[in-house]
Amino acid sequence: MLIDLLDNLEWYRVLHPQIQTVIDIMDRSLPYEDAPGQHSVDSLGYEVLSYVTSNEGIVHTAGEKELHVVLEGEELFSLQGERQPLVVTSFTTGSFVLVAKGETYRHRQVLATTGAVKKVIFRLPVLEP
After folding, report:
1. pTM value?
2. Third-level CATH fold of 2-124
3. For residue 127, what pLDDT band results from cuts at 50, 70 and 90?
């Protein structure tokens, strides 16, 4: 799991060739304007989510590399071990989290108080060598 400011995303282009496509999509503000649901631009799929955080959150295992960007609001985000969190961070507007395929994480969790969140998840396919 990698956490940084969205302004620094260009530093990570070497991690996956479609990160440049993510940058282009974000520069065009498409996820901000998109309704919740599945979308695709330039062969890159992404999902816009809109929800209210909860105390429990949701645990998910990444099926491929995922890049999460909070568009509005804030939440608690954690990388999960077998029995407890390994890394816990506040995830707010202007930051991103990159999760590797197979990593288990908890998101949609209350940070301070229950609140509305709009987030986009870009799914970066595993590339064959």
Report:
1. 0.94
2. Jelly Rolls (2.60.120)
3. confident
